Amino acid sequence: MSRRYDRRHSRDTKGHGAIGFLVTFVLLLFVGVLVFFFVSDTNYKGTKGKVYKMFYQQQYGEQVHKYATEFGVEEPLVFAVIRTESGFRPEVESSAGALGLMQLMPSTFDWLQESLDGQVIYSADSLRDPDINIRYGTYLLSVLLKKYGNRNTAVAAYNAGTTTVDGWLQDPSISPDGKTLTNIPYEETAAYVERVGHAYDLYQKLYYQ
């Protein structure tokens, strides 16, 4: 009885081993196919592009297109800033008090209104409205792009403020040419510029090429 049980158990184990090998083989084959499509899909138009689009969406596309066109800002940059700042969540409020999709500070919002509209029309709570937030956030990007003439420098100023960036541009160890930042002192700002730049490149490849 014992030997018979052992033989039957041995056959079952071999069967499970064969099934396990087959499952592993199929999984490896599937992963291999995915890797092949990802590597070969250099223009992001196939499987790779579809996967990336799940993570780099174009929410609030109508508002982004409207205000990017109005203020002369590239749409991929607006999407990249929104994704990096809030992950497309209009209710987000930072510990510092920045609000909404593009994380604008109330004091900056007041200044933007006075600059664009000649007076303060909206309260800080209005920044939770996606349309209002994208309008003034995109306008701020346009102001920074005109001021600095360099996308990465403008993005750094969006994060760290113009006073800080102006100081960096006067330091040859940070900005050899007074226009670009080669050695951003703030780790947070350096990471922010990198993240926005990465998202910008992907939005450009996924939707605008």
Question: How would you explain this protein's 3D organization?
Answer:
The chain has helices at residues 2-40, 47-55, 61-71, 75-86, 106-117, 130-148, 151-160, 162-169, 187-207. The longest helix is centred in the first third of the chain and has 39 residues, at 2-40. The radius of gyration is 26 Å and the shape is globular. The protein contains 9 helices and no strands. Mean pLDDT is 89; it is low at 1-11. With 209 residues, the protein is mainly α.
Quick structural gist:
This protein is mostly helical and 209 residues long. 67% of the residues lie in helices and 0% in strands.
Range of strand content: under 5%
SS-based class: mainly alpha
Query: What is the number of helices?
Result: 9
Q: What summary fits the major beta sheet?
A: none
Which short descriptors sum up this protein?
disordered N terminus, single chain, mainly alpha, globular, 0% strand, 209 residues, 67% helix, 9 helices
Fold blueprint:
Elements: H1 2-40, H2 47-55, H3 61-71, H4 75-86, H5 106-117, H6 130-148, H7 151-160, H8 162-169, H9 187-207
Helix pairs in contact: 3-6, 4-9, 6-7, 7-8, 7-9
